[in-house]
Design brief:
mainly beta, 5-stranded mixed β-sheet, 2 helices, globular
Length: about 325
């Protein structure tokens, strides 16, 4: 059973389903998730092998050892086993947009996406099976995380939060009093889990997700991602209008000066300690290891909008974008 110790993070007057909320979300979703509440498409089928799949809108990436998987629109699943130098499209049982991927180990891989889509591979991404967690064409699953081989989480639109304690054989919905869109769930080196979302939602768990505490960030805007800093207990959270906050000690939050007003999607701390964040302006924000000083770095392909990152074993940075997946070296980031 999972418990939430929290105060409501909704703005005064309850949830904002206003045109302002819809317009803000639509800007982000256009580049990243297509549609938070997609038009129901009850008919689905296998993805189509496409020559240009490697140049299509890709939204999520994750890897282990030399393997990485990138996922995106039209059910596209791309696999690399050579640090991102070459990508191969794998057959997918869905044409729905896929938002996030997680490699539990070298064999077992999970993917989530639009219309409550959940996929699993047990052969290193060579073949995929649909897993029924929820049958709701209006729900977008936006992220997932496994903390070990048994315990995992799926989060998404309008407060959707599912958990498993048996390796994904069964999933239990943990219903919320509020309904923020949950955009990311991630783990820190110290074992803490972090859940990030709309209305300034920042939840923290220090017991592997058995209970959660809501932290007051004194910000009611949308947060899209978090970067736990490896050599400290600090965490960077980021979201709309270039907003960046750094969690220090106890419940103290520090507002970080940002060099952009663009939406900030996902972030990652590199092996050399630097922090990189994807900007909706088609740029990267590159910060120091403390996460207090950021500068804008243009992408090599300036017309592309970055959406997610993975750093491969050889140190190269793999970046999913609305124009496919790029591979750049750390020297190029300098």
């Amino acid at each position: 059973m999972y418990f939430l110790i929290k105060e409501s993070k909704l703005p005064k007057g309850g949830p904002r389903f206003s045109s302002a909320r819809c317009s803000i979300l639509s800007v982000f979703v256009f580049f990243l998730f297509g549609s938070i509440a997609p038009v129901a498409q009850l008919i689905d089928g296998p993805s189509v092998t496409a020559r240009l799949a490697k140049e299509s809108l890709l939204l999520g990436i994750h890897g282990r050892a030399g393997i990485a998987i990138a996922v995106g629109e039209r059910g596209h699943i791309l696999l690399t086993n050579n640090q991102g130098k070459n990508w191969i499209q794998k057959q997918s049982p869905t044409r729905r947009t896929l938002n996030s991927v997680y490699l539990l180990d070298q064999k077992t891989i999970w993917i989530v996406g639009h219309q409550s889509t959940v996929l699993r591979s047990q052969d290193s991404g060579e073949s995929w099976t649909k897993i029924k967690v929820l049958d709701d064409p209006e729900t977008s699953f936006l992220d997932l995380l496994f903390v070990d081989s048994s315990r995992g989480f799926i989060v998404g639109s309008y407060g959707k939060f599912f958990s498993t304690i048996d390796g994904g054989n069964t999933w239990i919905e943990n219903k919320q009093e509020d309904d923020p869109h949950f955009y990311q769930i991630t783990s820190a080196a110290n074992g803490f889990l972090w859940l990030i979302g709309e209305f300034g939602t920042v939840w923290k768990s220090n017991n592997q997700g058995k209970s959660w505490k809501s932290l007051d960030i004194e910000y009611e805007g949308t947060l899209f991602g978090a970067v736990p800093l490896i050599k400290s207990d600090s965490i960077i959270v980021h979201g709309l209008q270039g907003n960046i906050f750094r969690f220090k000690n106890g419940s103290i939050w520090e507002k970080i000066d940002s060099p952009t007003n663009a939406i900030l999607h996902r972030g990652l701390q590199l092996k050399d300690g630097r922090v990189v964040i994807a900007s909706g302006a088609g740029e990267l924000l590159l910060g120091n290891g403390e996460g207090r000083l950021f500068q804008v770095e243009p992408l090599l392909e300036k017309a592309a909008v970055p959406t997610d990152f993975w750093q491969s074993e050889d140190g190269s940075l793999l970046i999913t974008t609305d124009r496919g997946v790029f591979r750049i070296t750390l020297d190029e980031l300098n």
